[in-house]
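so my prof wants the structure for this chain in the tokens format not the other one, which i didnt know existed until like an hour ago. anyway here's the sequence
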Amino acid sequence: MREISRRQALVGLGAFTFVLAGCGEGETAKKTADVSGNKAGAMASFGVGQQFKATEPISFDVLYNNHPFYPLKNDWLFWQELTKRTNVTLKPVAVPLSDYEKKRGLLVGSGQAPLIIPKTYHPAEEAFVASGAILPVSDYLDLMPNFKDKVAKWRLEPELNTFRQSDGRFYLLPGLHEDIWVDYSLAVRTDILEKHNLEIPKTWDELYTVLKALKAEYPDLYPMTDRWGVPTPGGNLLKIVAQAYGAKGGWEYQHATWDSAAGKFVYTGAMPGYKQMIEYLHKLVKEKLLDPESFTQQDEQAKQKFNSGKSFVISANAQTLINDHRTQLSKLVPGAKIVKIPVPLGPIGEYKIGVRTENGVMISKKALENKNFVAMMQFIDWLWYSDQGQEFAKWGVEGTTFTKDASGAYKLAEDVDFVGLNPGAPKHLQKDFGFHNGVFTYGGTTKLLHSTFSEEELAFQKVMNARKPWPVEPPHPFTDEEREQAALWETPLKDHVQQNTLKFILGERDLSEWDAYVKELEAKNMTSYINLVTTAYERFKKEHG
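here's what i got, hopefully its the right format
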């Protein structure tokens, strides 16, 4: 549920001479990291396209995000085949999905974390930088030929720069996508639209018109209810509506937004685009087009309303469209048809807003003391960043879970299902084999990404990919002191924005009080916060190009 941008890596001839595009020579060059005593099990030479295999059996602990849809099984083919191919045994330290972020923070903070810490969304890693609990992974990129290759080939350096801290290094290895991937949008009951001669809405204004028409037909129902309101009120809905106005909301909310027209950072929760998002959603709630419980109800409540035919529009992604709605709807509402529509457009025009980086991997500082450190970095590079490793993590074992034709097109084995590709098959790619697991499967070529997509999802992606990418924001990393100061301001600011956003939308606070709300943010150090961001931005620009 996240997204990012693009840039160019220039890797110098020295072992770890990493020079940022546009930087003065030597300015950000790194000294060669001494790993001469940590090469046990490592391959003497390991390059792009090469199968990694440790020269002796080794094992590493990995923090494991245990997903309730496919709970961890120790006998998954994933584990067995991974060891067979790489000579590495992973020992998962399982943490429930619901508790993952909290538990990860406790383990890292106490120095008890496994060496490999995946499923970390930027900027969560920043909390562990000052203490030195995690490695500056950018110092060790020469051990990762596949990572470097994709950054250079796909010109991902601008995105990667947004991960850099004030020392010019980054501490999280993000998943890397060839292109921006937009997945979350709205699902709409097309049979209802057809019944009332309504078109699929292409803009937010058109969605309003459609909801208005449906309200007239079904006065006792809310035409739209929504999910993903817990723990972030309106998580997806606020995100995609805010994007249409050039702002950030919901899941995507950040305190600072780059105003490219003005050439400066502004405070997100006070910018005109954020207010426009609130005004739009307030109008939907006021006219009873959007269920006011959308922002705070549990997912099960939202799904039950939609699946029983009590509402006709809901937030969705490719998997929830099938797993959470289509199957249930067909049972409860015979003849129901739904599609995930392209993200509606707004005043900013035809942009696709997202990132080409994804959640990624932190490395515990303890890894540097491990004799197998080099082998571990080679292994991580193979599994998460090589074409072969990404195919393995996603599709499994050729001849067992999938086949490939002469053109390179993938096909699931007949007895294996995944996202409804083989409905009714007795086995499941995730539940029974452990492949396409969110801990290990992200990033890669657009072809690989699209390989599990249905024709319907490919049609959605075709529309989204025709849109222009939104520019990447410039980096503005804080120093340790600045981060400490920012942290004191961020929580009260975010709480105030979140609470009042909801009050404005639900009509509990009148929009005529917007200026008073902005003054309240000012009293909570909004301007001081933006000044801090601006200082960090200007410093990084001066020091690192």
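also thought this was worth mentioning. The domain at 9-180+356-468 is CATH 3.40.190.10 (D-Maltodextrin-Binding Protein; domain 2).
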